[in-house]
């Protein structure tokens, strides 16, 4: 099956293809390949133009839902090629355009665009989509949904392991700790990309070069760390509705003098590292396993290793491609729904209980689902493609 999503960095569609099989209480997953289909520049700009605090009309939303759906359809066709010309179905997490969190920290709604009908029409395959809304309706945060995957994947690691994903927003899953837990720690690349885009025209500090040229601005860092989000109890979630251009501008306006480009990027990189490290320390992490685009920023990784009390490894070291992990997660979530199995971990998102996630759009023919599984999977066997190595993980919670 094919897993698709575009994260909060909004730079393109992540595509992953996996062979999944349900064997009793074990899900066996063999990664077959992953890639990214970048958004065209014009589409990327349209997305950025409607992010808060900007407005978004019904016309804007309709057009974007169509354009993103068509881009996801193209990504799905690319996934079929990666699969050798055949796939059974597609799972799509879409493109988050708004995540509604009240001041109290409760998630009230979430909106992902990328109409799945375009994917079904382009591929003839059924599509499992809209995977976050049911968790929110059940009182959960709807994000991050990585808890199920991470708990299965890392359950045999000794002590408390934290799975860290650094996208536009950074999130962690705590495995083997005092309780199952997953939450957004705060900005990952969101503010870094925003500042880099203003400086260079490209929303990315490639290899952390700009940050490496500067010095951490203590006063700005203190202002940013004063944000109340960091002191909210978990589970919690956030997004670019909060950490956006106006947010950064308000902080900069409080400084008595302008800050240089290098110092700004150095400070924002330190903010991401500090808030991640504080969260991992609070969860008494014995090891941190990192994935997502942020792991390609050596300045950020160096800062994390300096601030963490635990060793940090990249998920590639454990056989899971850091750039493709969330797309493989999407494939797993779709697979669980397809087999009538809950895809949320209530202890991680705060939902009232386990729920079947998503909606299914039929493909070219009648929808034929397998018989629902008669037990919740408790084990994930990952079979790295083209290698003999296997990691058997047991889910005990």
Automatic annotation (TrEMBL):
Keywords associated with the record: ATP-binding, Carbohydrate metabolism, Kinase, Nucleotide-binding, Transferase
Catalysed reactions, as listed in the record: 1,6-anhydro-N-acetyl-beta-muramate + ATP + H2O = N-acetyl-D-muramate 6-phosphate + ADP + H(+)
Known pathway: Cell wall biogenesis; peptidoglycan recycling; Amino-sugar metabolism; 1,6-anhydro-N-acetylmuramate degradation
Biological process (GO), any one: amino sugar metabolic process
Bias type Polar residues, positions: 384-397
EC number from the UniProt entry: 2.7.1.170
A Pfam cross-reference name: AnmK
Molecular function in Gene Ontology: ATP binding; kinase activity; phosphotransferase activity, alcohol group as acceptor
Binding site for ATP: 7-14
InterPro entries: Anhydro_N_Ac-Mur_kinase (IPR005338), ATPase_NBD (IPR043129)
Region (Disordered): 360-397
HAMAP family: AnhMurNAc_kinase (MF_01270)
Described function: Catalyzes the specific phosphorylation of 1,6-anhydro-N-acetylmuramic acid (anhMurNAc) with the simultaneous cleavage of the 1,6-anhydro ring, generating MurNAc-6-P. Is required for the utilization of anhMurNAc either imported from the medium or derived from its own cell wall murein, and thus plays a role in cell wall recycling.
NCBIfam families given in the database record: PRK09585.2-6
Family to which this protein belongs: Belongs to the anhydro-N-acetylmuramic acid kinase family.
The protein's name: Anhydro-N-acetylmuramic acid kinase
């Amino acid at each position: 099956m094919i897993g698709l999503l575009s994260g909060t960095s909004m730079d393109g569609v992540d595509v992953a293809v996996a062979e999944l099989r349900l064997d009793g209480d074990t899900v066996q997953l063999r990664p077959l390949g992953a890639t990214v289909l970048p958004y065209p520049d014009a589409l990327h700009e349209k997305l950025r133009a409607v992010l808060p605090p900007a407005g978004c009309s019904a016309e804007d939303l309709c057009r974007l839902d169509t354009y993103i759906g068509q881009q996801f359809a193209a990504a799905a066709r690319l996934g079929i090629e990666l699969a050798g010309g055949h796939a059974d179905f597609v799972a799509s997490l879409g493109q988050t355009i708004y995540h509604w969190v009240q001041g109290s920290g409760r998630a009230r709604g979430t909106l992902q665009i990328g109409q799945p009908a375009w994917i079904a029409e382009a591929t003839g395959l059924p599509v499992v989509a809209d995977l976050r809304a049911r968790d929110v309706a059940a009182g959960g945060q709807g994000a991050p949904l990585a808890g199920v995957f991470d708990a299965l994947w890392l359950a045999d690691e000794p002590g408390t392991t934290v799975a860290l994903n650094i996208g536009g927003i950074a999130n962690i899953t705590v495995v083997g700790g005092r309780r199952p837990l997953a939450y957004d720690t705060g900005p990952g690349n969101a503010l870094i990309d925003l500042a880099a885009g203003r400086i260079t025209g490209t929303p990315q500090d490639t290899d952390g070069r700009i940050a490496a040229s500067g010095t951490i601005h203590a006063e700005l860092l203190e202002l940013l760390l004063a944000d109340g989000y960091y002191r909210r109890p978990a589970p919690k979630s956030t997004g670019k509705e909060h950490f956006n251009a106006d947010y950064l501008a308000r902080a900069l306006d409080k400084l008595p003098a302008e800050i240089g480009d290098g110092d700004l990027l150095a400070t924002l990189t330190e903010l991401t590292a500090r808030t991640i490290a504080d969260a991992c320390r609070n969860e008494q992490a014995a090891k941190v396993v990192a994935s997502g685009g942020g792991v390609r920023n050596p300045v950020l990784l160096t800062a994390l290793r300096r601030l963490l009390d635990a060793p940090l490894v990249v998920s590639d070291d454990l056989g899971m491609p850091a750039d493709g992990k969330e797309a493989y997660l999407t494939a797993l979530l779709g697979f669980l729904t397809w087999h009538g199995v809950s895809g949320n971990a209530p202890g991680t998102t705060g939902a009232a209980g386990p729920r079947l996630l998503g909606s299914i759009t039929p493909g070219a023919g009648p929808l034929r689902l397998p018989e629902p599984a008669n037990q919740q999977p408790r084990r994930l066997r990952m079979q790295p493609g083209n290698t003999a190595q296997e990691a058997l993980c047991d889910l005990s919670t």
